[in-house]
Amino acid sequence: MTLDPQMLDVINESHKHAGHAGDDGSGESHWRVVIKAAALDDMSRIARHRAIHTAIGPDLMGRIHALAIDLR
């Protein structure tokens, strides 16, 4: 499935968690995705999150400690 977002903002929030559990020191551990995509409109909340995780892919998801998702 292609999400084809009408709006997408990816924000690195790792600096807010420096020194906390889950901070691996890379500066790329905590992310926020703000997205509006028609493909997500008819999905349940959990299905939306799964679709976004799938779009990000297992390699990148494996390096992320925390991902906040804001659906618009």
TrEMBL record:
<protein>
    <submittedName>
        <fullName>Stress induced morphogen, BolA</fullName>
    </submittedName>
</protein>
<dbReference type="Pfam" id="PF01722">
    <property type="entry name" value="BolA"/>
</dbReference>
<dbReference type="InterPro" id="IPR036065">
    <property type="entry name" value="BolA-like_sf"/>
</dbReference>
<comment type="similarity">
    <text>Belongs to the BolA/IbaG family.</text>
</comment>
<dbReference type="InterPro" id="IPR002634">
    <property type="entry name" value="BolA"/>
</dbReference>
<dbReference type="InterPro" id="IPR050961">
    <property type="entry name" value="BolA/IbaG_stress_morph_reg"/>
</dbReference>
